Amino acid sequence: MPNLQGSLPPELANNVVRLYRECLRRATFIGKQQHNTELVVGMVRQQFKKHMNETDPEKIQKLKDDAARVLINHMLFESAKLTGRKVGQRS
């Protein structure tokens, strides 16, 4: 599976704390739109807390890739909403 973190800025992709903060920002944004901020933010916190003691570098990389994938998908979705296109639609 390709490393998805190349799609994110290196300072975010290489730093778990920054990735966590960005996930929380996105969760807050989504939560405010859907009026369930506490639930969405809680889910993000729970996932990061669940894996906070992970030491296997490969597993950590997979977890970071998964988080990056969610961020990228959300950014694509928001971009598509702004442009009026469906996600995956080409110009």
Automatic annotation (TrEMBL):
Pfam families: Complex1_LYR (PF05347)
Organism superkingdom: Eukaryota
InterPro entries associated with the record: Complex1_LYR_dom
CDD domains listed in its UniProt record: Complex1_LYR_SF
Complex 1 LYR protein domain location: 16-69
PANTHER family membership: COMPLEX 1 LYR PROTEIN (PTHR47579), GENOME ASSEMBLY, CHROMOSOME: A01 (PTHR47579:SF4)
Name of the featured protein: Complex 1 LYR protein domain-containing protein
Lineage: Eukaryota, Viridiplantae, Streptophyta, Embryophyta, Tracheophyta
